[in-house]
């Protein structure tokens, strides 16, 4: 289905990259209607229309030519009403991300390598599952009932009691916790014809301040495996638009798929500086029936999150760092992140040094390291 300029794109919910999606839609001549469930979420930003609360849902759906979501979690109330909307993305990927047992079964059915896991519903069953898998293990509910589901990492049998708050009669997933695994991620966009564009592989650095950058320490064989896995998953899911595939790579060379996430996230900020065509624009093209744009990889880039305490030091860098791009969010995230910095250039080591010695993150990093040592 082609959606032509002048049409209204309906966007559900809040995500820090919604602004980029709305800007991309406006650049192509579309109008944007934003639907949020609560008055507290009424930052309109780039939206032309703002619909607040369930009483506005019918008006929202009636106004929008297509409706899209840009997050991995939607409330049950919204999920129940998605069938009333023209939803190019479908709900298959949302269903998988809301239910860990469903996603694990999907991965197993399609011979996708995942971290070993077991299901449990009582403390005794958690203890048996953990003993069988081997410590440490991560324990969480199989259902994502909010955007930030609670998870407990259990180092030994003596910590099983920590899981007690999760025991409510529902099922839990117990899986091995890979302490030294390297988080990796590929952002990709699939169009209505099944064509797929994959963006460069990203890696997360293990440090107190979250950092994502283009992967530099992944060998060619693993890169090929990752690309093939992303393509395979894209072919198996009825989905259109941008999404992330998250991986874990161990020091021993084992590779696991960790999660599938609909929408565009960290990769959007990096795609602007590492390729010739950003994720948000590519996603709007896919959702409106346009052909995907071939990408070319250019600069190296690093993404780091910002807290409010770091802003004053950051501002001192504005006049001396031509290769730094700062994005400040309309509202802090649930984790307290108020924005991000993307640093781009040709030399990874040089960019890393710029960040590490800028002083922006040093006080927070030092405090975290001191707290860990106690």
Please describe what this structure looks like.
The protein is of the alpha+beta class. It folds into 3 domains: 8-87, Rossmann fold (3-Layer(aba) Sandwich), CATH 3.40.50.20; 116-176, Dna Ligase, domain 1, CATH 3.30.1490.20; 182-357, D-amino Acid Aminotransferase, Chain A, domain 1 (2-Layer Sandwich). Helix content is 30%, strand content 26%. It has 12 helices and 17 strands. Strands 9, 10, 11, 12, 13, 14, 15, 16 and 17 form a 9-stranded antiparallel β-sheet that branches. β9 and β10 (196-198) form a beta hairpin. α4 crosses α5 (100-109). The protein starts with 7 loop residues before the first strand and ends with a helix. Residues 104-288 form the ATP-grasp domain. Keywords: ATP-binding, Nucleotide-binding.
Report the mean per-residue pLDDT as an integer: 91
Domains counted in the coordinates: how many?
3
The count of β-strands is 17
The portion of residues forming beta strands comes to: 25-35%
Rounded Rg:
21 Å
Give the helix tally: 12
Largest sheet: 9 strands, antiparallel
Gross morphology is: globular
> pLDDT below 50 for ≥5 consecutive residues: which ranges?
364-374
CATH fold field value of the largest domain: D-amino Acid Aminotransferase, Chain A, domain 1
- Using the 3D structure, state the CATH architecture of the largest domain: 2-Layer Sandwich
The first-level CATH class of the largest domain is given as Alpha Beta
Give the ordered list of helices and strands.
Answer: EHEEHEHHHEHEEEEEEEHEEHHEHEEHH
Question: First CA to last CA: what distance?
Answer: 58 Å
**Structural class by secondary-structure content:** alpha+beta
The H-level CATH homologous superfamily of the largest domain, spelled out, is: ATP-grasp fold, B domain
Portion of residues in helices?
A: 25-40%
Pfam families: ATP-grasp
Protein name: ATP-grasp domain-containing protein
GO molecular function, one term: ATP binding
Keywords: ATP-binding, Nucleotide-binding
């Amino acid at each position: 289905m082609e959606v032509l300029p002048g049409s209204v794109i309906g966007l559900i919910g809040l995500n820090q990259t919604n602004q980029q999606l709305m800007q991309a839609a406006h650049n192509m001549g579309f109008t944007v209607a934003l639907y949020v469930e609560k008055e507290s979420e009424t930052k309109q930003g780039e939206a032309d229309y703002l619909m607040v609360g369930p009483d506005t849902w019918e008006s929202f759906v009636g106004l929008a030519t297509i409706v899209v979501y840009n997050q991995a979690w939607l409330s049950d109330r919204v999920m129940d009403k998605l069938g009333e909307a023209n939803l190019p993305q479908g709900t298959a990927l949302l269903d998988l991300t809301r239910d860990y047992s469903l996603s694990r079964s999907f991965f197993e059915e399609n011979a996708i390598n995942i971290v070993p896991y077991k299901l449990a519903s009582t403390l005794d069953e958690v203890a048996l599952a953990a003993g069988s898998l081997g410590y440490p293990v991560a324990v969480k509910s199989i259902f994502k009932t909010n955007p930030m589901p609670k998870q407990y990492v259990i180092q030994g049998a003596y910590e099983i009691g920590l899981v007690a708050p999760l025991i409510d009669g529902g099922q839990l997933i117990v899986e091995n916790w890979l302490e030294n695994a390297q988080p990796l991620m590929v952002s990709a966009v699939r169009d209505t014809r099944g064509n797929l564009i994959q963006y460069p592989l990203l890696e997360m650095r293990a440090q107190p301040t979250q950092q994502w950058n283009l992967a530099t320490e992944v060998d060619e064989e693993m890169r090929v495996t990752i690309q093939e896995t992303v393509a395979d998953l894209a072919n198996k899911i009825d989905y259109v638009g941008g999404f992330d595939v998250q991986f874990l790579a161990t020091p021993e060379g084992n590779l696991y798929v960790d999660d599938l996430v609909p929408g565009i996230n960290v990769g959007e900020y990096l795609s602007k500086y590492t390729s010739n065509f950003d994720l948000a624009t590519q996603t709007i093209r896919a959702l409106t029936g346009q052909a995907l744009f071939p990408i070319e990889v250019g600069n190296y880039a690093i993404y780091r999150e910002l807290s409010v305490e770091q802003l004053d030091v950051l501002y001192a860098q504005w006049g001396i760092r031509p290769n730094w791009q700062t994005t400040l969010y309309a509202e802090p995230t649930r984790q307290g992140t108020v924005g991000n910095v993307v640093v781009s250039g040709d030399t990874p080591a040089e960019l890393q040094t710029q960040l590490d010695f800028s002083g922006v993150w040093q006080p927070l990093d030092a405090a975290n390291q001191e707290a860990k040592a106690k």
